[in-house]
């Protein structure tokens, strides 16, 4: 890359990135910034393993060029926890034992955070719709749905705080 580095706000912190503008956000997060919560699954934006939040919306980081997120807020799985405590959604997924291999869960956690930011008391239909494009090959669907329901309760108990835009 030539010229000035791109400036990204990732998990509340301004980060200069010396990458070609067309490089995928996933590649920059994992390879340049060392944030490995978003996973490379399909590379086509189909499986959801690479999901992150951009300005509070779920995006597939494997298909979005890094230049498109310059100047915007990016929150990864790592950015959800605060002061050594997991985010209520992360806690819910752990308590509900929603993981089998765990590969899909990071994207599902991010999608759940976005869902609860939009709708703190989603219906079963809304929960299923929010996770519909996130693929789980291990078959932990029942536990994942239980985790989202638990996340609704834990988030309410935590005062409804879903996404924190600034670092601690």
Automatic annotation (TrEMBL):
GO terms for molecular function: 2 iron, 2 sulfur cluster binding; metal ion binding; oxidoreductase activity. The keyword GTP-binding does not apply. Transmembrane segments: none annotated. It comes from the Bacteria. Residues 4-80 form the 2Fe-2S ferredoxin-type domain. Signal peptide: none annotated. SUPFAM superfamilies: 2Fe-2S ferredoxin-like, CO dehydrogenase ISP C-domain like. The keyword Oxidoreductase applies. The lineage of its organism: Bacteria, Pseudomonadati, Pseudomonadota, Alphaproteobacteria, Hyphomicrobiales. InterPro entries: 2Fe-2S-bd, 2Fe-2S-bd_dom_sf, 2Fe-2S_ferredoxin-like_sf, 2Fe-2S_ferredoxin-type, 2Fe2S_fd_BS, Beta-grasp_dom_sf, Diverse_Oxidoreductases. Gene3D superfamilies: 3.10.20.30, [2Fe-2S]-binding domain. It comes from Oharaeibacter diazotrophicus. Keywords: 2Fe-2S, Iron, Iron-sulfur, Metal-binding, Oxidoreductase. This is Nicotinate dehydrogenase subunit A. It holds the Pfam family Fer2.
């Amino acid at each position: 890359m030539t010229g000035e580095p791109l400036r990204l706000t990732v998990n509340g912190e301004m980060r200069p990135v010396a990458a070609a503008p067309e490089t995928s956000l996933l590649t920059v997060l994992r390879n340049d910034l060392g944030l490995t919560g978003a996973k490379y699954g399909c590379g086509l934006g189909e499986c959801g393993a690479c999901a992150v939040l951009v300005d509070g919306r779920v995006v597939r980081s494997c298909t979005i060029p890094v230049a498109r997120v310059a100047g915007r807020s990016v929150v990864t799985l790592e950015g959800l926890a605060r002061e050594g405590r997991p985010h209520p959604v992360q806690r819910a997924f752990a308590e509900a034992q929603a993981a089998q291999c765990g590969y899909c869960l990071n994207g599902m956690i991010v999608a759940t955070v976005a869902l609860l930011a939009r709708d703190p008391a989603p219906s079963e239909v809304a929960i299923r719709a929010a996770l519909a494009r996130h693929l789980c090959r291990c078959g932990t669907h029942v536990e994942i749905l239980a985790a989202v329901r638990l996340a609704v309760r834990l988030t309410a108990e935590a005062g409804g705080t879903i996404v924190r835009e600034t670092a601690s």
